[in-house]
Structure prediction request, 264 residues.
Amino acid sequence: MKPNFRNLATKLYAVAVLASALMGAALNAAAAGPAPSGIKNVVLVHGAFADGSGWDAVAKILEKDGYTVSVAQPPETSYADDQKYTKAAIDAMGGPVVLVGHSYGGSIITEAGNDPNVSALVYIAAFALDEGESCASIETAVPQASKAFKPDSNGNWWIEQDHFAADFAADIPPAQAHFMAIAQVPISTDSFTHKVTSPAWKNKPTFYMVASSDRSINPQQERMMAKRANAKTVEVNASHVAYMSHPKETAKLIEEAATSAHAN
Prediction:
């Protein structure tokens, strides 16, 4: 009986294709990095005058390291709206999360962090407010260096474009800072003056990154808020957008929070 070379060739081809697919999957898994231990979900919350796109570099590092990332997009139209959008992002993860906030995003996560699925909080040059405090009251107590924050007739606050780079984003590429200035998202007076009622950092593991060259929140206030929250604290020589100018350090702190936290 003659061997059927055509069938043999077909079988060998199928084996080769399967082997190639398995090898590709193994290489892709290796490139993505090992699955992280601890909490595997991260929700990133932007602050005033910005949107979620600024988290791009941090999100890429976290995803490469095996984390599932969601970038919330609170509209800054009211504190209630900002809570709604952030809580929706937490719920959509379907499990324990590390909740991260920058700037005004810190005020948001301070309340949203009471969600039972939030296992740890990370503040990046952010408002870790106590009961009865607002972003406005903190800024009044120890003023920031910038004088470029201005209200409009619609109840919103902006940063004057001519001062945006120096006062908000001094250590990122000028073209990027310019685009942020012309694309800034104004914050409502309601969001800026809302008083926190139940700070989650009093009951959850907390981490804080101080930006020592910040002109939008006084670094002295950042250190004070980190200390009273008993937060694991790191400090970087950065402008207010420390998460953009120092994405590696930011991701490292978030991953430390994720690996040390436990699901509730």
Notes: Strands lie at 41-45, 68-72, 97-102, 118-124, 149-151, 156-159, 187-188, 206-211, 232-236.
